[in-house]
Amino acid sequence: MAGRVRTLSIVDALTDELRGRLFSGELARDDTLTEAEVARLYEVARPTAKAAIEKLVGEGLLQRSAHKTARVPKLGPADVRDIYNTRAHLESTALRYLAQGSFVPDSAVAANGEISAMTDCTPLSVVEPDMRFHTSLVDAMGSPRTSRMFGSLVSEVRLCMVQVQGQHLLTTASIAAEHRRILDAVASGDGDLAVSILTDHLGRARERLVAALGGVPGPEAELPAPA
């Protein structure tokens, strides 16, 4: 059977373009984005520009109150903790589910292999395969609704990382090592161990990100990273 090709609407294509500018750091926190500016820059109708902006507002990547211009949100320590704690709940559920069948997604192994191979890279370049690793674990549950919820969180995590780009919060070696420990625990059928490793993994990242954004980090920031 022939494969399916996803056809993007103009709104979807424009949304992807704007999302890419956000994730690259080209649009920084507190930057504004008007419908007129987007319509002019991309030569689209204003309703199209408005629809793309509204989609990003719905994803939490832009903020806009009534009759106000959309702007890139300025995420703070409380936002980071809420985002990371929510993703921890979803990922923990996924790990316990996968561990029941000792199932390790190939996509997770591949993403972590990319991270392991990164020896000379910018902090921001690690974010994409790192998020792909975690997303593949959630997607392996086969729940479209859970995947959609997690996808929204991943977008906000990437936005957090963009706002502190240039800071090495964790080494690629330590990230890859901890990912391997999570996968090994899942493969052995030990969901509780996998969740325990994940809790430390996300907690360390969360509190170091809190500190980078000017907050007071919790004790998890000092957890030793695996070699």
Number of strands: 2
Structural class: mainly alpha
Beta-strand percent range: under 5%
What are the segments in which pLDDT stays under 50 over at least 5 consecutive residues?
1-5
What is the tally of helical segments? Answer: 9
Strand order of the largest sheet: 1-2
User: What would you call the shape?
Assistant: globular
- N-to-C order of helices and strands: HEHHEHHHHHH
Write down the overall mean pLDDT: 89
Spatial extent as radius of gyration: 19 Å
Largest sheet: 2 strands, antiparallel
Care to give the gist of this entry?
With 227 residues, this protein is mainly α. Helix content is 63%, strand content 2%.
Structure description:
The chain has 227 residues and is an all-alpha fold. The protein has nine helices and two strands; from the N terminus they run αβααβαααααα. A two-stranded antiparallel sheet has the order 1-2. The chain is globular, with a radius of gyration of 19 Å. The N and C termini lie far apart (46 Å).
